[in-house]
Structures are given as C-alpha cells and as structure tokens.
Specification:
elongated, single chain, 9 helices, Tetracycline Repressor, domain 2, mainly alpha, Arc Repressor Mutant, subunit A
C-alpha cells in the first residue's frame, strides 16, 4: 500500500490492472468510472502533499494520468473534485465503522459494540493518512461548501451515536436520556482530539485515543463514572 493509503492511489497502484493505453474495448461507462476513481485518488494524494490551496487541476490530472478534457468531463473545477474525493472517502469510513460491530457475537454488550466501532474509525484514519489530512485539514478550508460538508458528516456520526444509544437503552433502561446536542458534542470532542493529532502529523498515534473516546461516550451516554487511573 502507498504511504498515503489506498484512497490516494490510482487503481493500478492498488494492485489492479488498470485500463490499457489507447482505445479501449471496455464499455464507455467502465472507462468513465475508472477515470473518476483515478481523479479522486489523485485529488487525495496531491492535496495531502500540497494542501488544497496549493493544488491545481494540472497537478491532479498529472497524478491521475488523464487529460485535462477528461477532468472537466467529470468535474467543474478543482474544488468540486476535492469535495467529491472527501465524500468518497467519508462513505468508506462510515461503511467501516458500521460494519465492524456486525462482526461481533450477537450477545456482545453495548460497550463492546461502541469500542469496536471507535477502533474501526481510528484504524481507518491510520490506514488512510492522506484522506485523514484532506478531511480534517483541507476540506473545511474549501469555503462555505467544505464547512457544510464537514457539518453534515458531524451530524451523520451523531445520528449513528444516537442509534447505538437508543438500542443500548433497551437493555440498560437506567442509562440517561440525552438531547441530540449531546451526540453532536461527543462527535465534536472526537473531531477535536483526532484533528489536532492529524494537524500535528501524529496520525499513527490515533489508536491511543480508543480508551479516552470510549470512556467519554460511556460517561455521557451511560452515566458511568470515569475509570480510576
């Protein structure tokens, strides 16, 4: 895997064959899909290297090994490409987080389910450091749309927290009810803890946050005292 993770690698650098050079016998939809994936990967990689304000369309098409005309067949400008790359990576992150607890035994307790989801979240970012930098550093810098996308991601994770909590309360009716703002606040706390490490180039340390994030969620959503020590 590339240093930046699979999301920043063109298809053939992830182990696939890629499309042959020259005229292709593949359906046009397959060719377009491959070009789209290349452009998304190139956007993640180049933004990680230069920052969103330092990247140009020329940088992206050079990394993707497609023409400028191909770029504009898919995206209106650089920012729309970077936003699409962020959305693509975020969708994969959400899939990883929601899939991980489903691998647990049916009788797994609520805290184990929570911890497993948080572990998958942190592990994904460690495995995809270029995407982590794009999402936590560069995406919010893309004017109003970037901030809006980041806020939507926050609310999506808050809803996931809410769903977990409501299911857990069926087995633990003594756990407190909380307003939706509490779920948003927990995501905000996680964003601050993760984002500061990403900004400081300490992505490899993210798994160290597993206990803190688990204990924080359990303190707010289960009314549990913070563990001693």
């Amino acid at each position: 895997m590339r240093e930046g993770g699979s999301l920043s690698a063109p298809r053939d650098e992830r182990g696939g064959r890629g499309l042959p050079r020259g005229r292709s016998s593949l359906p046009a939809s397959d060719v377009a899909a491959d070009q789209h994936r290349r452009l998304l990967g190139a956007a993640v990689a180049t933004v990680a290297e230069k920052g969103v304000h330092g990247v140009t369309v020329a940088d992206i098409v050079r990394r993707a090994r497609v023409s400028r005309a191909t770029f504009y067949a898919h995206f209106t400008d650089k920012d729309s490409c970077v936003l699409a790359a962020g959305a693509h990576g975020w969708a994969q992150l959400v899939d990883a987080v929601t899939a991980a607890p489903r691998e647990l035994p049916e009788d797994a307790d609520a805290e184990q389910q929570l911890r497993t989801a948080l572990r998958a979240f942190l592990r994904f970012l460690v495995d995809e450091p270029a995407f982590a930098r794009l999402f936590y550093i560069d995406l919010p810098a893309i004017a109003e749309e970037g901030v809006t996308r980041h806020g939507a991601a926050t609310h999506q994770f808050a809803r996931l927290n809410q769903g977990w909590h409501e299911r857990a309360r069926r087995r633990h009716p003594d756990w407190p009810r909380v307003p939706f703002d509490a779920y948003v606040a927990l995501v905000g706390a996680a964003t601050e803890l993760v984002g500061s490490r990403v900004h400081d180039g300490r992505i490899a340390e993210l798994p160290d946050l597993e206990d803190t994030l688990t204990d924080l969620h359990m303190a707010v959503l289960a009314g549990r005292a913070w563990p001693a020590g």
